[in-house]
Write a structure and sequence with these properties.
By secondary structure, the protein is an all-beta fold. The protein contains no helices and ten strands.
């Protein structure tokens, strides 16, 4: 999860480009690249949204190559900023039943459900 607090577990590995870290409340550690870790919090998300905020999708329903689906009017949870062409202009959301977050432009999202 973008912006999550973690603790360093044990000494750094031999290659010195990664660290073993644990993200509470998990009890197991994961190896993370030093490039993905920072002592400072990440910059604010586009639109002033926060991680975990639930937003509604207003775009067209579709099935993605991964098999995940996004449905017009569905509510998803913000998991981080969009990347690539949408960097700074969108957010990544995870929808119930999907395995992966999906990135959208801010104009495709809203705080309240779409009118019927």
């Amino acid at each position: 999860e973008q912006g999550g607090l973690c603790g360093v577990v044990g000494p750094p590995p031999a290659d010195r480009s990664t660290l073993d870290v644990v993200f509470p409340p998990n009890k197991w550690c994961v190896t993370s690249s030093l490039l993905s870790l920072s002592r400072k919090p990440p910059p604010p998300l586009p639109g002033g949204f926060r991680l975990g905020k639930r937003l509604y999708f207003l775009g067209l329903s579709q099935t993605l190559e991964s098999g995940d689906r996004v449905v017009h009017g569905a509510r998803g949870e913000v998991t981080g900023p969009a990347s690539g062409a949408l960097a700074g202009q969108g957010l990544a959301l995870l929808f119930k039943g999907n395995r992966h977050s999906v990135e959208f432009r801010l104009s495709q999202l809203r705080r309240k459900p779409a009118p019927p």
